[in-house]
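queue> holo job accepted ((2R)-2,3-dihydroxypropanoic acid)
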Amino acid sequence: MGKPFVYVTRKVPEHCLGELREFAEVEMWHEEEIPVDRETLLAKAKDATGLITMLSDKVNAELMDAAPNLKVIANLAVGFDNIDVEGATARGIVVSNTPNVLTDTTADLTFSLLMATARRIPEAVNYVREGQWKNWGPLLMAGTDIHHKTIGIVGMGRIGATVAKRATGFDMEILYHNRSRKPEAEAELGATYVSFDELIEKSDYVVCLAPLTPETKELFDLAAFRKMKDSAIFINASRGAVVKEDDLQQALDEKEIAAAGLDVFLNEPIGADHPLLKYDNVVALPHIGSASVETREEMTRLVGRHCANVIVGRKPEYIVNESVWKG
Ligand code: DGY
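queue> job finished
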């Protein structure tokens, strides 16, 4: 009998899957930036014991039904809203994700995005590149201070707390809102728990790091933006669907907020004609929260280990649907 088959839905660093190859026959889609087409994925799933999936793959009933031998779906992301976890649980399939290894990297990106938006970095870079810099002026490309301002973090999980840690270095006042209180963040970082409304009303920087759930879907709508300060800067590094994008646009048009930094969008990837790209005060990134070479390699090793573990009957480090393992 041959080794179990694991299919990887995108080209990932080959050398990071060495350990998995001891236990499985591994095949991966040959493109790094072009997703596997559905037909190929469904055909590969047919023989797969494991699937290593990306946040852009829709892992639904159709795919799981096409994979009668599937035991593990290892998602290369901390978020797993692309997966029908309930459906996987019902079929006895382990779903795993990649928390911890990407925490610092994603916090770095979130804080960079905040700084880039506040200090108008992309606009200033383009200004120089386009030859517009003819004179120095006292208010040329003047942005907004970060130090000593109030940051409000919605979603105080690992990444939220790590962003808060960075904010302490900028002498910021830290507010947070979360499903549950975080006593360690309060004690160690001086963060103050507040209601969602109080957070959005008082913060200079409203930073969303909450996972996408039915509760957070479209949490940031026009009413929320209207409650924010006119000078507030909104940063989203979680999932696009937490924002009503039309409402964000209206809030920017009506100057309900000052600017937005967005790493994520409702329908990714967005094209150059996306309406939010017409604003100079919107900084848009292509969902690169955890995109450092070191971290993406570590995430790849981790998903490889998750598959190998399930294949040999060992519990993977991070299971989303624990009940499947307990049986
Ligand atoms: C994740 O892992 O869920 C992040 O969105 C990646 O940047």
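queue> The pocket of (2R)-2,3-dihydroxypropanoic acid is lined by residues 55, 77-79, 102, 106, 287, 289-290 (CB under 6 Å).
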